[in-house]
Amino acid sequence: MLIPPRAENGTGEYSFSDSTTTLGPVSYTHCLALRQRVLWPDKPLSFSRVPGDDSARHFGITHAGTLICCLSVFYQQEHCWQIRKFATLPEWQHQGAGSALLNQVIALLTQEGARRFELDARLSAADFYRKRGFSPCSAPFEKKGLQYIRMVQQADGNPATEDLSR
User: For residue range 4-50, what is the model confidence (pLDDT) as tens digits?
Assistant: First the structure.
């Protein structure tokens, strides 16, 4: 299991007890292969690009020089960010890497003034997000042949009150 990061080390990265593991900003081009491998393995690499990638912020966990987990955050409006394209290598899933990355990114953006986080979760991953404070705010919907549900988290820890009929 991956031990949660200790502290920011002055470079925008977080160190782990294992000195070969870091968490911090990455370029979206580094995320593309991981996104494709985990989220869309039957699609070409270009399918993993999304509009706004060049202006979004991208974060990842690197272990021994390999990107093992990444996510991207897209500014939506004042104090609101959308989390997209969250991917963890299969061999690193269920070991705390995704939780560590999500928690650190939310903490960083909250320090910067964010108050709301939104994401479209695959239904198969909705429980992961529920356990981390996200609440459904839509009915399930289909996108690119998969079932999703919009989820939201308020940075103050209070459940978001949303109209679920959207």
Answer: 444 444 444 445 666 788 899 999 899 999 999 999 999 998 988 98
H helical segments located in 2-94 = 28-39
Tokens (6 digits) for 107:
């903490």
A 10 A CB-CB count for 48 gives 21
Tally of CB atoms within 10 A around 113: 9
The CA distance from 44 to 159, in Å, is: 38
Backbone angles phi and psi of 6, in degrees to 5: -80, -60
Q: Within a 10 A sphere around the Cβ of 86, how many other Cβ atoms?
A: 24
Radius of gyration of the chain (CA): 15
Q: Is the pTM of this model over 0.90?
A: no
Alpha helices (H) in 8-122, listed in sequence order: 28-39, 97-111
